[in-house]
Amino acid sequence: MIDVTRHKQQLRDYFDGDGFRRWSAIYGDAEVSRVRRTIRVGHARMLARAEAWLLEWIGTTGRTPLAMNALDAGCGTGVFSIMLAQHGMQVTAVDIAPQMVAAAADRARAAGVAQRVTFTAGDIEDVQGSFDVVACFDVLIHYPQPAFDQLLSHLAQCTCGLLLFTYAPYEPLLAAMHWIGGFFPRAHRRTEIQMIRENDVRHTVARHGLRVGRIEPIRSGFYHVNLVEATRE
Ligand SMILES: C[S@@+](CC[C@H](N)C(=O)[O-])C[C@H]1O[C@@H](n2cnc3c(N)ncnc32)[C@H](O)[C@@H]1O
After folding, report:
1. pTM value?
2. Distance between CA 107 and CA 104 in Å, rounded?
3. 16 Cβ below 6 A of ligand 1
């Protein structure tokens, strides 16, 4: 079993250093390698789908987004936080890597929505409060069980309306490749993606009183996640 505190520290160090350079390039518009381009395209497709689901959900509530609050958990460079703020929501954006938070705050200022977003460098599990919308994209893919369950439980508890998140689905062929990859020296491996079974996701969400709606695979080259919507009724 992993030491969750140590695992988070490793992720923080990675996303505050090499990972920041790698991912901010992917989430930006500078020239990147072919492999990274497939990730950029997949990520953009996933966010567009999430935004469509968000707008559908807002429509069902009969409320205005101007009166809603949102949490972007593991906000990275703030792409989705800014989108939430552009729809008029009051946004709390949290990321464990200070460099990510600083870049996100710069982007929010440039987009003219800084007054609607509160940025904090910290751990998702330290966030307190209740949010109409909770988004957590491409963060849980870095957590194996039981840390995955722990983080998703916390996010579900913070949600009073809509929870949107991604996870890396369990696939036997990929699992075998990861297992073989485990025999290679660590330096030869990329960021590890942690695959989770759909039943685990459903159980965790249901345990906290949310109803799972759509689960949609988003695939583009090396980008491979399931997007999930869950709501509190
Ligand atoms: C691959 S990036 C995704 C960024 C953003 N959600 C997006 O989709 O554009 C993963 C982010 O999760 C953050 N992260 C990982 N574990 C975290 C935790 N426990 N609390 C807060 N942020 C975390 C990392 O620092 C990194 O910025």
Report:
1. 0.94
2. 5
3. no
What confidence score (pLDDT) does residue 17 get? 96
Residue 15: CB within 6 Å of ligand 1? yes
Counted domains in the chain? 1
Taking only the tens place, the pLDDT of each residue in 74-104 is 999 999 999 999 999 999 999 999 999 999 9
Q: Which atom of ligand 1 is nearest to the CA of 78?
A: 9
Ligand 1 atom index nearest CA of 74: 22
Atom of ligand 1 nearest to the CA of 135: 6
Q: How much is the average pLDDT of 2-20?
A: 96
- The CATH number linked to 192 is 3.40.50.150
Domain span at 36: 4-231
Please write the tens of the pLDDT for every residue from 160-200. 999 999 999 998 776 666 555 554 445 444 458 999 999 99
